[in-house]
Structure formats: structure tokens, C-alpha cells
Amino acid sequence: MIVTTTPAPHSSILLEVELPPDRLDRSMDEAVRRLARKTRVAGFRPGKAPRFMLERVLGPTAVLDEAVDILLQDAYRDAIREKGIVPLAQASVDVVQAEEGKPFKFTATVQIPPEVTLGDYTGFKFLPEIEPIDDLKVESVVDELRDQNASLRPVEDRPAATGDYAVIGFVGTRDGVPFEGGSSERMPLILGEERLIPGFEAHVAGLSIGDSTEFDLEFPADYGEPTLAGQTAHFAVDLKELREKVLPELDDEFARSMGDFADLAALKVEVRHRLERNALDKARHGFADRIIEYAVGNAMVDLPDILVDQEVEVMHDEFRSTLARQGIAEPAYLKAMNQTEADLHTEFRPRSETRVKTLLVLSKIAEVEGTDVTDADVEDEIATARIRYADDPRTIAYFDSERGRNFIRSTLRRTRTVESLIDRWLADHPDHPALPHAEQDDESDAVDATAAAAAAIGATDPSIVLEAGEDVEAEAVPASAEPEPISSSPAADPA
Asked: pLDDT tens across 118-145, in order?
């Protein structure tokens, strides 16, 4: 067998394989035996029909086609083992020559683990950016606390105004006919937040409880429901209830109601302390993001399509989850946006390429830095996941699988690697304010970020392809690390 390899785009290799004529001859004999066992031929016992009768029943190329399939599986497997290739997916195969008495030739394009070439990832000149905390920011937080603890008081002595909490009933019609979604017996809204179509709430302001009004209003041209976009509708509105927000007094009593604070001054001291702590936490995370961006920008990776395609699917599932949390069904969203799933995938692809490159580069840095994650660390994360996803057996099953454990291990390695780079920089700059690790479990949050989406499609963490060869092959090529069956695109009909 003669095997030559040529680098191909997107982290792939083109194999050109040539076998001597006798290899095809032996496969032809095997093909006849296989077809004879499973083909009924009148006048012959099972397994005894000769080749010419099989070709008469099944077609003139049936035996050759079967022989090619047999030979491809064995020859492809031998070729990748001879060259030490670890395939990431089923190869794309083209038969170049399959004629009896001549060498058998085929090509196979095989996606392989990418080569990650690191550039500089520690010589950055930028600094952490710590947001200064002043009295104005403290006062703003205290005002937010007052707003969160405000009460609602019925309004009876004045008309509705911006900021009021109202309950309205309304009926929307077009040409005198009510339209779907255009009516409500009781609709709560906060005047001024413009939850309804632009201009609607302006007609409610000025009404008193029990008042009614009617008006025409045009839907925006980009309104989500195409049948209403740009159309004019008539609305009849009744103001049923009206309340105003009443803020608590800014005094020591308010401070004590917020917790164990002696007075308002003590509350403000605690608010400042928390803001400063959050500023340091934000600075550390922002610094980490810039370090990652710097490292990825200086690295070179030829991204395999299969890893990018998988990340697109992960992003798609994350998007579905986001829509679901907002109570939006994906088909309704696609209809409103006049998009297809293919359009979404086109939008996701540039970001998925960035994400895959980031994961691969960080994993390579982790390898260079010798970052370690023990089995005990992984088990701790799985225990946390069982609690966090107690109502999601699919995600728990994913984490219990070898693929899910690898996902956790790789995510933890990347997180710890970046944190170690920050700690090293801080050690080299002792005059810089400390950036302590956040009190919350950063590692668990990192794992949780894309866990459900990865579990939904059974994703393999892209960085796994950079791990030890045997492990990669078992992961990427199922069935006892044997290559997947390959499908061939035959050349013109062989003679």
C-alpha cells in the first residue's frame, strides 16, 4: 500500500492511497460470498450463486461496488494507522480508480486535531481597570434600595402621570373588527416605560380612575407581527386602577430596616464597601478577558470545520434557552424576524469560530503552564451539578458520562490557567492593589455557563482534541477506537 499525505485547509489532511491489483481481487471474492449469502437467486442454494448470476440479479456493478466498500474500510483504517492520524470525524472519500487488474486508488480528506501555535501571552502592557467609588455612586445605590422598598399608594385626587402604576382595559380594532392580541380586560403597566406600542401610554396619562378615551395609533414599521406592522388601529381604553410609588424616608429608620445597621451612615459605609469589593471583582474579570483576547490574538490555529459546526449548535441551544426564559418560542421568533435556522447559524458562525479558537488556545496555554485538574476536582463539580440541575436529568447524565467529565476537566483547566496568569502578574507588580478572587465559586460558574447547552447536544469540548492521542481517538472515533465507516464517492463507472 502506498500512502501519501498533503496538508489541506481547515486542519485537514488529504490522503492519497494506492493498493496493488490483488487487493481488489481478494475483495471481489469476499463481495461475491457476502452477496451470495444475502441474495435469493433461483436455482441456487443460499451462498452458492456465482458472480455472473449475482450481477444478473443485482446489476452489472453490484459485486464491484460491494468490493469497493469492503476494501475502503480496511484500506482507510490501515492508512490512518500507518500515518499516525487521529480523525475528528468521518472522512470524505473519493474513489479514483477501481478496475479489475489495475491498482485500486482513492483519496480521503480527513479532519484532524488542529495545531495551535502560541504567541506571546504574558508580555501584555495593559493594566487592570478598577472603577473608582465616590459618594455619588453610594448615594445612587441607596436610592435604588429606597426604590426597591417603596410602597404603592392608591391615587384618587389627581389624573395619571408618568411613573404611576396603572391597570387598564382596552380593545383594539381595525376597520371596526377586533384583532388578535389587541384587547385585554386588565393590563398592568407603568406609565413611561413604553411597554406597549409607542405613543399608547401618552393617551393614558391625564386620565382619572373610571375615565375612558379613544384614539388611533399606527404600529411601527418593524413591529414583530407582520400583519400589523405599519398599520393603523383604533383603541378604546378604560383606566381601572391607579397607584403611585411612595419611597421610604431617607433616615436611620430606613437603614435599620435594611439589616443590622445602627444608622444611615453605617448603611452607607457597607454600601461603599460592597461597591469597592465589586469593583475589584469586576476589574479582575475584565483583566482576565483582556489577557484572553491578547493571547488568542497572538496565536495561530487552523480551525477544523467540525469543531466550529459543533460550537454553532451549542450557541443555538443557548439561544433557545434565552428565548424560553423570555417566554418566546423559537418558531415564533424566526417568523417575526423573517429568518430560518440556517440564517441563525450564519450569524452564529463568526462568534463560534472565535469561541473555538479561544478554547483551543487556552487549553494549549494550560498544557504549557502545566495546569492540573484532579479527578477529585471533577467529582466535586459533578456533585455541585447534581444539585444545580436536580430537575434536569439529561444534563446530569451528560456530566456523568466520560464526555461530560472531559468537558468539566477542560473548563476547569482553562479557568485555573487564566487565574494563575493574573496571580503571577499581581506578584510581579506588588505596588498594584490586590485583586482577590471573588467570594463566589468562579470555577463552578465557569462550568455552568455553557453546561446545559453542551449537554443538550452531547458536545465534545473542543480542547479534548489536544489531549492524549488514544483518548482523542476513542472520543472522536467510536466503536473501540476504530474509524467510523466511510462513505465513498465513486469515480466514473469502472470498466
From this structure: 999 999 999 999 999 999 999 999 999 9
In this prediction, residue 20 carries a pLDDT of: 95
- State how far the alpha carbon of 340 is from the alpha carbons of 307, 337, 344, in Å: 22, 9, 7
Query: Is a pLDDT exceeding 90 seen at residue 385?
Result: no
Q: Is the pLDDT of residue 401 over 60?
A: yes
pLDDT the model gives residue 491: 40
Whole-model pTM?
A: 0.70
Which CA distances in Å does 431 have to 122, 254, 282, 285, 428?
A: 18, 40, 19, 20, 9
- Domains, the chain, with CATH or none: 2-112 (3.30.70.1050), 151-246 (3.10.50.40), 265-474 (no CATH)
